[in-house]
Design brief:
Elements (H helix, E strand, L loop, with lengths): L6 H17 L2 H10 L4 H9 L18 H14 L1 H11 L3 H6 L2 H12 L5 E4 L15 E5 L2 E12 L6 E7 L10 E7 L5 E5 L11 E12 L3 E2 L5 H37 L1 E2 L2 E2 L4 H29 L5 H26 L10 H13 L4 H13 L3
Parallel strand pairs: 1-4
Antiparallel strand pairs: 2-3, 3-7, 4-5, 5-8, 6-7, 9-10
Bound molecules: flavin-adenine dinucleotide.
Flavin-adenine dinucleotide (FAD) binds next to strand 1, strand 3, helix 11 and helix 12.
């Protein structure tokens, strides 16, 4: 076992940190968060630097990096500024089904625009009546000649009001047994009959929107079908299992960001004539945060490392996706205790880190649903 970063990984992390110091002004990102605006300027610059979706192959505009190296890039950005990092990371995660199951034409048409920072992608699975339970969907795609006609409503879809294209999942065979009869399609936002609306304020992910989408008699050409008809559920699960390692690593970035602010405060804030870090309750909180971050990070890195080795292990990925958000939420709450009054203000980042950590718990399925799957792996059919 070798737990050290490679020299390339170390260099990448240093370069990313320099990029953030040079390009990221927290006062400006706070304004973006208040206005709920996507950070397009820095997103484009990150694209020029090769940081966006850098695990994509070179022919799709990526850097061909291992997923772990990419996760380390995002971790570093999120650690420095979550308002930027979460937006950058969530710009491309939704395109995973397209990357994995799209044909060459579809991939070449849409994916290079993501790595260049020209647009973001959305994935539309969740519906008002289907959150965790996506065995069936109410959205219908009905074949008519060379097209499918799409009708239905989606909800909580990240960036749907700004993304140029979506991967949309809909029921193509309404009578099919559970998990079957769902298909995926690439749909451009500007298509007639598509309406995406921001759902309003939320506690985290302030620089990405969460939207409803209405599809009304939307004509989708057959060539936009993703992979095979009625295989959509498998595509969603396969792509999510890869994405879950990324979400676990986002949580590591959030926890490290909160930890950095807590350590800084403990070293600089004086009360009763001494630095507050000299009080044992404060120093022990910091040690506990460090213990928890490091142990969760080992699991998160292992999940993605296994994926890079072609040995993806579902239980490890899911456990990382459960453990890391819980750890990040706890670290944020501890950091808030250390900053006390200052910790409640957005200027100090902690409310944002906490809100984003709460989101990582439910993005791509809730931790409870992931525990259901892991329980099945450990206990088998009882
Ligand atoms: C900020 C944000 C961004 C999102 N982005 C997207 C996106 O881009 N695309 C997309 O398609 N979706 C997106 N989602 C939707 C997200 O995936 C769902 O919110 C999530 O899957 C949970 O669904 P739900 O909120 O309807 O909760 P529900 O499914 O209603 O669950 C409610 C509670 O019941 C529990 N529960 C439900 N079923 C079970 C069970 N069988 N066993 C144990 N517990 C259970 C859940 O764990 C949860 O605690 C986003 C959501 C948010 C909040």
């Amino acid at each position: 076992m070798d737990f050290s970063l490679t020299s390339r990984q170390r260099l990448i992390k240093e370069a990313v940190r320099e990029f953030m110091v040079g390009e990221c002004d927290p006062a400006k990102t706070l304004e973006l968060a208040k206005k709920k605006e996507f950070p397009w300027e820095i997103y484009k610059k990150a694209g020029q630097n090769g940081y966006l979706a850098s695990y994509y192959p070179k022919e799709l505009g990526g850097q061909g990096l291992p997923l772990l190296d990419y996760c380390l890039i995002m971790e570093e950005i999120i650690r420095y500024d979550n308002r930027i990092g979460m937006a950058l990371s969530l710009g491309s995660i939704p395109a995973k089904t397209l990357l994995r199951f799209g044909n060459e034409d579809q991939k070449k048409t849409y994916l290079p625009r993501l790595t260049k920072g020209e647009t973001v992608a959305s994935i539309a699975v969740t519906e008002p009546n289907h959150g965790s339970d996506i065995r069936f969907l109410d959205t219908r795609a009905t074949k008519k000649g060379d097209e499918y006609i799409l009708n239905g409503n989606k909800t909580y879809i990240t960036n749907a009001n700004i993304a140029d294209f979506y991967t949309v999942f809909a029921q193509t065979e309404p009578e099919a047994p559970p998990y079957r009869g769902i298909s995926g399609f690439v749909v451009e936002r500007e298509t007639e009959g598509v309406t995406a609306l921001d759902l309003g304020d939320k506690i985290g992910l302030k620089t990405t929107s969460s939207c409803s989408i209405e599809f009304r008699d939307v004509k989708v050409p057959k060539k936009n079908l993703l992979g095979n008809e009625n295989h959509g559920f498998t595509y969603i699960m396969d792509a999510l299992n890869e994405g879950r390692g990324e979400i676990a690593n986002q949580a590591i970035g959030l926890a490290r960001g909160a930890y950095d602010r807590a350590v800084f405060h403990a070293k600089n804030r004086d009360q009763f004539g001494q630095k507050i870090g000299k009080f044992q309750n404060i120093s022990h909180l910091i040690v506990e945060m460090s213990e928890n971050i490091e142990s969760a990070a080992l699991l998160a890195y292992k999940a993605v490392w296994l994926y890079d080795q072609g040995k993806m292990d579902l239980a490890t990925s899911l456990q990382a996706k459960v453990k890391c958000p819980l750890m990040a939420i706890d670290v944020c709450l501890k950091a808030m205790q250390i900053l006390a009054g200052a910790g409640l203000f957005e200027e100090q980042f902690l409310p944002g880190y906490l809100g984003d950590a709460l989101a990582t718990w439910l993005l791509e399925g809730t931790g409870q649903m992931q525990r259901n799957t892991v329980a099945g792996k450990i206990l088998g059919r009882l």
